[in-house]
């Protein structure tokens, strides 16, 4: 256990994003749905609520489920309404090689669970909130801060906030993007396959039917299906979709023909590829596999899904945040978010949103999770400048982000698209003339 915790009120008084990050890392907020000993977000949300209230925000805590609150805080009033949003739950701490809740600083980085995903992003939001509250000079409109629970599982927090009427004219979710602007994210769809065979003694092949072997024909077909997915659709920032076998279960003992095998496939999808489309495509693949497996007896059901979503790469929100980056000396980069993120729910609710925050997705959820201090400070400066720009013409333009973005012409990736959480990287300048990425 860590030594006595420093008083978090000190971090609140400094309003320094690095101190706020460390104070938040010291408060365990492991999602109890992911880890049986996870304590949930209540203490972390309570701490943020105290800070925000002290700074002059009107703060409301929603108790979505026992021990799983979320909060929304407001300052200012009228339009435009700017939303900064982040989650306070983290994944578990099993196997961590650094003390998860003692945020040591080494080599210009803060270590600990949630340091990258995404307590540093939340700290940047809080620091911006405090700066605006202390010095509102000329800040027009409303600043809304939403801090959520359960993003790492089922997003009960954000869904609850949206149900209670959370809305805004523009939003940034400060997930770790290495300070790239991510206006598009991939979604996912689970397909649950149940293969039925016939149980029989392992020595009696004429009586038995092997459900696991049936599943094997479908597994063998995944390569072809994925190649087709990639050929069919390519997104300038996200590239193509993908599919993999997530879990498989079947059989009771080696000497009995397995009567059942269940297989869960996960497809990672592009914006616009909903669960119906994926399930229909999986059914076609299963049918084709069945041509080589005459005994096939299978049902395919749609499981959990989350939408891919995007705003146009030249949306006023992208432009205004790009300008804030440039004004703070950072050349803006556009990227696709390979993972599903809560900005997708905001976009679905009609709130133009993108992800932009400190930390690299590659460091999230790892045994040595950490975040660059310089990135925390840069993100805070850029976001404060962007929030203060709320009155400029560009950022009050029509907020039409619900339709599909122009996926072919307006993402100015120069060369191959960057994807946060994957391998390729490139520069992109939203103010250059349109050029289509290679995908
Ligand atoms: Zn996250």
Plain-language structure description:
- It is a single chain.
- This protein is of the alpha/beta class.
- It folds into two domains: 8-185 and 309-420, 3-Layer(aba) Sandwich (Aminopeptidase); 187-305, Alpha-Beta Plaits (2-Layer Sandwich).
- The chain is 29% helix and 22% strand.
- The protein has ten helices and 17 strands.
- The chain has helices spanning 8-14, 17-25, 42-54, 115-134, 156-163, 211-232, 275-290, 316-327, 343-348, 373-388, and strands at 58-65, 68-76, 81-87, 105-106, 109-111, 142-148, 170-173, 181-185, 187-196, 242-250, 260-269, 298-306, 309-310, 334-337, 353-355, 370-372, 419-420.
- The protein has a six-stranded mixed sheet with strand order 1-2-6-3-7-15, sandwiched between helices. It has a four-stranded mixed sheet with strand order 13-8-14-17.
- β1 and β2 form a beta hairpin.
- α4 packs across α10, α6 packs across α7 (275-290) and α8 (316-327) packs across α10.
- Zinc ion binds at residues 87, 117-118, 151, 175.
CATH architecture grouping of the largest domain: 3-Layer(aba) Sandwich
Uncertain runs? 393-417, 422-439
Q: Strand portion, in percent?
A: 15-25%
Oligomer: single chain
Order of strands side by side in the largest beta sheet?
Answer: 1-2-6-3-7-15
Alpha-beta classification: alpha/beta
Number of domains: 2
CATH class of the largest domain: Alpha Beta
Which small molecules are bound? Answer: zinc ion
Tally of separate helices: 10
Short description:
This protein is of the alpha/beta class and 439 residues long. It contains 10 helices and 17 strands.
